[in-house]
Amino acid sequence: MEKNTQTKGFSRANHVGITVKDLEKSIQFYEALTGIKISNRDEIGGKRMAQVQGLKDTRIRYANLHLDNLNMDILEYVIPEAEKASYRNNQISAMHLCFEVDDMEAALKRLKEIEVEPEGEPIVFQEEDGLKSGFGTAVVYFRDPDGTNLELIAPQGPFKRKG
Fold it and tell me: What range(s) does the VOC domain occupy (predicted)?
């Protein structure tokens, strides 16, 4: 299938940014969750950075975590001070980050080891769930220390990426 040249560059994602209350606590959480150490820790800010975000001024402490297929920016806003937001998955503009795993049982064991409770019991998609395909795909939702919506998926069928 040939890609439309008007959308060239929009076929892959570079990173996801997650705003957190406490950078150190979140680094510990995401390193424990993924088993990957952060690659960089720094601070950025000033009027130019603020302008691109629609702010008057900003200072951001951050860390970068490189997953196999996506980078994560973990961001602690110092100026302006971050405001708490809380989204349920069914709310408009809510987003979540989904981690792909090969073994759901092993992933659930890892969550338990780092004292993270899933939002509910994991499910495995079956025909009665209303899907036309993807049977055997396992999913579960959970949250990071700041309440960010996260998901685990052990994909099958059309949920499984090619290549």
Answer: 12-155
CB-CB contact of 49 with 62 (8 Å)? no
Name the pTM for this structure: 0.87
pLDDT at 99 over 50: yes
Assigned CATH for 14-82: 3.10.180.10
* 3-state per-residue secondary structure call for the chain: CCCCHHHCCCCCCCEEEEECCCHHHHHHHHHHHHCCCCCEEEEEECHHHHHHCCCCCCEEEEEEEECCCCEEEEEEEEECCCCCCCCCCCCCCCCCEEEECCCHHHHHHHHHHCCCCCCCCCEECCHHHCCCCCCCCEEEEEECCCCCEEEEEECCHHHCCCC
Summarised one tens digit per residue, pLDDT across range 108-118 is: 999 999 999 99
Options 3.40.50.2300, 3.90.1170.50, 3.10.180.10, 1.10.3720.10; CATH for 95-163 is 3.10.180.10
CATH 3.10.180.10 domain range(s) in the chain: 14-82, 95-163
pLDDT at 1: 47
